[in-house]
UniProtKB/TrEMBL annotation:
<dbReference type="InterPro" id="IPR025558">
    <property type="entry name" value="DUF4283"/>
</dbReference>
<dbReference type="InterPro" id="IPR025836">
    <property type="entry name" value="Zn_knuckle_CX2CX4HX4C"/>
</dbReference>
<feature type="compositionally biased region" description="Basic and acidic residues">
    <location>
        <begin position="252"/>
        <end position="266"/>
    </location>
</feature>
<protein>
    <recommendedName>
        <fullName>CCHC-type domain-containing protein</fullName>
    </recommendedName>
</protein>
<dbReference type="Pfam" id="PF14111">
    <property type="entry name" value="DUF4283"/>
</dbReference>
<dbReference type="InterPro" id="IPR040256">
    <property type="entry name" value="At4g02000-like"/>
</dbReference>
<feature type="region of interest" description="Disordered">
    <location>
        <begin position="241"/>
        <end position="301"/>
    </location>
</feature>
<feature type="domain" description="Zinc knuckle CX2CX4HX4C">
    <location>
        <begin position="172"/>
        <end position="219"/>
    </location>
</feature>
<dbReference type="Pfam" id="PF14392">
    <property type="entry name" value="zf-CCHC_4"/>
</dbReference>
<feature type="domain" description="DUF4283">
    <location>
        <begin position="32"/>
        <end position="108"/>
    </location>
</feature>
Length: 301
């Protein structure tokens, strides 16, 4: 039997340029990846997949539904059946499961999963102690770009003659420490300090200020010769939840335009916030550890 001549044969011959394909979606059989998000949770441990997908679906309530798959360890795909459902999720973040922040990006055709950067998350930030007269969008935009990248200025910032804080939406780099405050000059030319508080903030480190791990997992702490207990960050950078419950009213009190409707001493917005707050908490480790069996978290009504 004659043997083929293998001399000079190479599996990677020089001049082999590889293949180039068209990434346009053709045919009805292909899923529309434009309605697909890729994400990961900012945490050091594995996520309980079955509980997570049920919790996120209940939080999002997509009208046309969502399919959730694990693409690889720690990376998840969220495919929506309608673009409006996807937009609600993208615009409604940050999303938190079991106190871990979810980082989401839209899938781009032609990109490999591992090449999609998952390092940024949108966060609403409250700016406290602003000098009077600086509740302006241009000021908010400047402060947002100092914290990260400007996304949105809350239109309610200017719905009142005075507000306790300015609210801005910022695209944050999770690899960088959270900024606690900054200085600015008031009208008299004196320096004053404004403070930042972050809404729906998940796990973060009091030592290095970076999201995604607690101080017991912090590399900076392990590099210390001795931990003297000093912490640069505290829980003060978490924005306090909005007030819940009823409030006293008076027939002589005039509500401002855009104020919340009150009936019988009850606050509709506050009551809705109670419900939303009860649904935003992911299952705790204790809830998932009973009897070695998977427990599906219940949704508070």
């Amino acid at each position: 039997m004659a043997h083929p001549n293998l001399e000079g044969l190479s599996l990677n011959e020089e001049g082999d340029e590889g293949f180039v394909f068209d990434f346009e979606e053709d045919g009805d059989e292909q899923v529309d990846l434009r309605w697909c998000l890729v994400g990961r949770f900012l945490c050091e441990r594995a996520i309980h997949f079955n509980s997570m997908k049920i919790r996120m679906a209940e939080l999002w309530n997509p009208v046309k539904g969502v399919t959730i798959k694990e693409a690889r360890a720690g990376t998840f795909l969220f495919h929506f059946a309608h673009p409006l459902d996807m937009e609600v999720v993208l615009n409604g973040g940050p999303w938190v499961f079991d106190n871990n922040t979810l980082i989401l990006e839209q899938v781009q055709l032609g990109m490999q999963i591992e090449q999609i950067p998952l390092f940024h998350v949108p966060i609403w930030v409250k700016v406290h102690n602003l000098p009077m007269g600086l509740m302006k969008e241009e000021v908010g935009r400047t402060l947002a770009n100092y914290l990260g990248s400007f996304l949105e200025y809350d239109k309610n910032n200017n719905s009142s003659f005075w507000r306790q804080y300015m609210r801005i939406r910022v695209r944050m780099d999770v690899r960088k420490p959270l900024k606690k405050d900054t200085r600015m000059k008031n009208k008299e030319g004196e320096w004053c300090t404004v403070n930042f508080k972050y809404e729906k903030l998940g796990v973060f480190c009091f030592i290095c200020g970076i999201m995604g791990h607690a101080e017991n997992k912090c590399e900076v702490r392990y590099a210390m010769e001795q931990d003297d207990g000093t912490r640069e960050w505290t829980e003060d950078i978490r924005a306090e939840p909005r007030r819940q419950g009823g409030r006293t009213v008076s027939k002589w009190l005039r509500e401002e335009k855009g104020g919340r409707e009150v009936h019988g001493g009850g606050d509709k917005a506050a009551q809705a916030n109670v419900l939303a707050g009860s649904q935003s908490r992911g299952p705790t480790n204790a809830e998932l550890a009973g009897n070695g069996q998977e427990k599906i978290p219940t949704i508070n009504q």
